[in-house]
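Hi Y.,

Following your request, here is the sequence exactly as I used it, all 196 residues.
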Amino acid sequence: MRHRVKGRKLKRTASHRKATLIALATSLLKHKKITTTVAKAKELRGFVEPLITKAKTDSVASRRYVSDKIKDREVVKDLFGDIITKVGERKGGYTRVVLRGQRKGDGAELAIIELVDFSGIVKPKTPKKTKGEVEKPVEGAEEVKAVEAKEEKAVKKASAKAKKELTPKPKKEKVTVKKQKTVAPKTSTPQKKGGS
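Below is the corresponding structure, written out as tokens. Let me know if you'd prefer a different format.
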């Protein structure tokens, strides 16, 4: 009988399960929204929500308790600062699990777990810079001069590259030299006496 046995084993040992939940919790608090399997999401909900409740009382003891579970200092600082101010007077239910369907590879049921108060405020990804783009100048005369110098270098490199591409390269003729093989004369090996 499995009376009063709670929690999922997630096909892991106790230490591996604990490490998995710590990693998932850190990712959730850092990115505010993650995609994982349904079982992990539901198990993570029971791991993260008590940490958020504990973080509501900003004391040395609660910071140490949370830091014991979450190893990333920046995430702990964000939890006690930004996340707790957003949560406010909410008495629980800080996370939401939304089913997403099945994963293509193995058919596992996927879910999105997110912090409820951050559901519409997910940080947008910064667009990748192309080769021609240069950062916008920051305030201050020295920074502006440094950025202008970078722009000039980039323009010079681009013009030098264009010149190289436009000038035809002289074709090198391939010279093939055949080597004569030196063949050693064959020597016959002596046969055994009294052969059959």
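The helical segments are 14-31, 38-55, 60-69, 73-87, 141-166.

Thanks again,
Q.
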